[in-house]
Design goal:
Number of strands: 11
Strand content: over 45%
Number of helices: 0
Helix content: under 10%
Radius of gyration: 13 Å
Shape: globular
C-alpha cells in the first residue's frame, strides 16, 4: 500500500519556522519526484516546491524562494520542507505528492498537514 504521511505542521508566528516531513512507503522512493503543494481556505491548491527523481533538481515557486528548502533522505524515504520567515499568507494545508515528474501528473497524495501563521 502506497502511503505519504505529512507531519510537522502547526501554529507559528510570522517570521517563525516550521519543518515539514513527508514519510513515504509502498513504492520505490527514487523512482518518483516528490512535491509539496498547499491549499488555503477558499483558494485553489497551488504548488510550492519539488525535488525530482534521484534528487537531480529542486524547484520552488517564486512566493517561497529563499525562504523554503526542500530536501530528501533516501535512507528514510522521506522528503522535508524547511520553512523559514513564514508569513500569514503561507497559512494553508500542505500536501506532499509523488509523481513521475515535478508538478506533472500526481500519482499519490498525502493527507495534508495544517500550517497556520499568525501576524
Amino acid at each position: 500500500e502506497v502511503q505519504l504521511v505529512e507531519s510537522g505542521g502547526g501554529l507559528v508566528q510570522a517570521g517563525g519556522s516550521l519543518n515539514l516531513s513527508c514519510a513515504t512507503s509502498g513504492f520505490i522512493f527514487g523512482d518518483y519526484a516528490i512535491g509539496w503543494f498547499r491549499q488555503a481556505p477558499g483558494k485553489e491548491r497551488e504548488r510550492v516546491s519539488c525535488i525530482s527523481r534521484n534528487d537531480e533538481s529542486t524547484f520552488y515557486e517564486d512566493s517561497v524562494k529563499g525562504r523554503f528548502t526542500i530536501s530528501s533522505d533516501n535512507a528514510k524515504n522521506t522528503v522535508y520542507l524547511q520553512m523559514r520567515s513564514l508569513k500569514p499568507e503561507d497559512t494553508a494545508v500542505y500536501y506532499c505528492a509523488a509523481g513521475d515528474f515535478c508538478f506533472d501528473y500526481v500519482n499519490y497524495w498525502g493527507q495534508g498537514t495544517q500550517v497556520t501563521v499568525t501576524s
